[in-house]
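Please, structure for the following, as tokens.
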Amino acid sequence: MKKILLIQTGGTIAMSAKGAGVELDPEAWASVLYKEIPELNEIAEISTLPLFFEDSSDLNASHWIELATCIEQNYTAYDGFVILHGTDTMAYSASALSFALKNLEKPVIFTGSQLPMSSIRSDARRNLVNAIEIATHPVHEVGICFNDALYRGNRSTKMSIGDFKAFGSPNFPSLAEFGIRINMKEQHHYGKGGFHNQAQFTNDVFVITAYPNLNPRFLDCLDLGMLRAVIIRAYGSGNFPIKGTFSLLPFLEKCQQAGVSVAIVSQAAFDSADLSQYPAGRAALEHGAISGGDMTLEAALTKMMFLLAHNESKSDIEELFQQSLAGELTG
């Protein structure tokens, strides 16, 4: 029987209803897990590890490093890992670990729920059973298991607050689907050599969302001396204002002069940013910007944070950002 380490980090799946809302409740979660889902031990030999207990909106790179270190320390003792995590930043954590955990040969599966496990209508039971079961299969990457599907972690994004289908993978098919049987899709390996943990991230990056009437003067408040990269969430295939007082081109020029990398991703969930298609994108290219292709914001941000921590050269960072390191980018 496969050995699975179940890592608890908090989130809705570990909450209980109290008053008008829900609150984290470690003792209630443990009680429900063992009393209500005893059949989990029929799937695998499960060990639990309460690593930390936080709402996922409070998680940051220090928690990603703690998670990666936990997996590294337990890598040889287990056949797979399931991480219970809040849905709000699950795609960020999964993306970050996809870059940090090099040459994975074992599944690292994130899951959670839209309702607490203690709720009678909770999706927690189904998600947890599916995640444990898929962690016994030959998945060699970081995934998100939710609502009868397994998605590549760095291709996932939260799509819904009130639907059990909380996550989607807009630009990449699911890795597996759950029905009467598990329908496994083609599996991939990323990297060669032995597993190793490279979890290191920097926060020298800032995200800007383009919107009509964005006053470029607001961006003058940014201290470019403290930044090494900016990610712009542009319209469509990479468009943003380039005319009149609302043009963002002067800001791009300042970034170029300051040696700050500018990467452009799309606000649209589906398809890819193509900076060669329209005048705004071509102007961005002329000002030294690079395209994030069809990466999600979660993947683009965590990838940039990872690359900045591991590379000093601006040109190396920009070259690597435009390459697929863990299946996060098409092409």
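The chain has nine helices and 18 strands. The two ends are 39 Å apart (CA to CA).
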